[in-house]
């Protein structure tokens, strides 16, 4: 199938690219994407998405088995409806479960890795190692088994909603960079006076400096140049190397 990444990706940047659809859980050389909510894609080859059959939530009594194509928001809704704990933070996270596990997505100390029992990677159930916004998973995730605990918390839901208050609206891929140890990437970029700085149709948000906003039909080059500029300026000013959280496919 053809995906137009200027419509599909959350940052609304990219071209029309032929993408395969994986129908079976097995090893392959494709580069698998989810909802492209943490990606900046130019002219990549060999891309694939999962078939719709991998969008499911199965209650296995002691745990949940969730297909990797399931949207984070759908798992949040399921948890709320069935009074299950720990997935309140998914109400605020775009993406599918495969991407979430691969990136160890989360908010503050609430990370998906905390609730993972096992993953189906390339057709084999196994464990994985996780750190801040990172995993050692190299294969394709087809499903995940998650801890099932009581009870859903409306207080936590409110907490996550409030955490989003300083997040800018507009097309973005979430945070540009991971936070370096003891610093916030947004603070460092802000100190380089880059808030509001534009290249073409891409700008650093005035509201939060670790967000790149596509405000006017930005190209891949606009966004990429802006990311490189942030890295250069922060390194020059603070000798700190910013590591992108966004996955960039040139
Ligand atoms: C407005 C906004 C706010 C955000 N806020 C946060 C936040 O607070 N915290 C946070 O952690 N993230 C945040 N993100 C980033 C994003 O929500 C997460 O990284 C999410 O996990 C990405 O899921 P996805 O399906 O879109 O993955 P994609 O962006 O499509 O892919 C991301 C990576 O995962 C890999 N991948 C995708 N699916 C699979 C699979 N099935 N098997 C193996 N690898 C796979 C891809 O190859 C790629 O390397 C935000 C994004 C946006 C747009």
TrEMBL record:
Gene3D superfamilies: 3.30.465.10, UDP-N-acetylenolpyruvoylglucosamine reductase, C-terminal domain
Residue span(s) of domain UDP-N-acetylenolpyruvoylglucosamine reductase C-terminal: 161-248
Catalytic site: 133, 175 (proton donor), 245
Gene Ontology molecular functions: UDP-N-acetylmuramate dehydrogenase activity
CC cofactor: FAD
E.C. code: 1.3.1.98
Locations listed in the record: Cytoplasm
Function comment: Cell wall formation.
Protein name: UDP-N-acetylenolpyruvoylglucosamine reductase
Underlying gene: murB
